[in-house]
Amino acid sequence: MALGQGRIREQALSDQVDAEANKVSDLEDQVAQLDDQVAATQDEVDRERAQVAGLALSLYRRPSNWLVLLAGAKDLRQALQDGAGALVAGRRAHALQLRLESDLAKLKAERALRQADLEQEKAVKASLEADLKQLDSELNLQDDISNQLLDLADQMQSALPDLQSQSPAEAAQLIQLLEAQQRTLAAAEEQRAWSLAAAGSGRYEFSGLLPAGAPVTDLKLEWPMTGSVISQPFGPTDFALEPPFGPYPHFHTGIDLAQASGTRVTAAAAGLVVVASLGRVGYGNFVVVAHGHGVETLYGHLKTIDVAVGDQVAVGQFIGLEGSSGFSTGPHLHFELRISGQPADSMLYLPPPGYRAK
Known about the structure:
This protein has helices spanning 3-61, 66-72, 76-165, 168-206, and strands at 229-232, 235-236, 251-252, 255-258, 264-266, 271-277, 286-292, 295-300, 302-305, 312-313, 318-322, 333-339, 342-344. By secondary structure, it is of the alpha+beta class.
């Protein structure tokens, strides 16, 4: 991404973090209020239980046989009224106790819901804070890469007169040094690109917009650019600017598809755009689409980008124009597939050249 766009996104993420912090604070207040209501209702329940228990004890101590009660009473009417009043009072007290216990259960259930909401918002806030920290780190890295690129350009410009005056051996040594610096920049840009992709995919998986879990076993891709020629395959290469991978000193982590500059580039599968970056090194202008289950595709060296982070794309949907941005020797599309963060040969999942699914 361009630095200006990155800083805008950083501010947007910061605003989201602040909004989530306010939600967390509001929910904490609601939980605290419910705690107070639960405590007050519990006190009422305890008081009513004590009253019911006292009333039950007083009734227990009275003669249980109504004939005995009536025989011992001086005033029959008063005895009947006392007995009936005690029963009514007991029923009312018991009903009040049941209502209070029901209210208490509802309050506890409501508190449990608010607590669950609070924990969820805390998790969202923590995720956004992690994204913000990651983005800030990536932007700082991009600043550093841009500065290194400018320094490298200055060095190359300054080295041109020296190359003509130096011996072939000295010139070759200087060229090797400059190429090594280019490889370092390319490797740093590659790491930055896939760190951004991992952060974006993780965020959308966390929110449920992308399926997580083990990679699908029946992955199928479509050609992102029709009528093109494969100018460089996936795998080990002698091309000096390719970064190392595994035991190989130079490894091409995707396939290069060559066509006339400005050819339309389309999504190889349906998914969510997690990176749309403008750059001058490595992949140049590139897009990463996440497809869920740890599957991601990258479209590099674009001339233009016509999607934005968060866009949902369908298979075959236009995402940009082929170009030669970044470290590129000519117009082509660098198409890269990663599964669970590891480069994979996309040819294993693409249809035969010339075939396109209907």
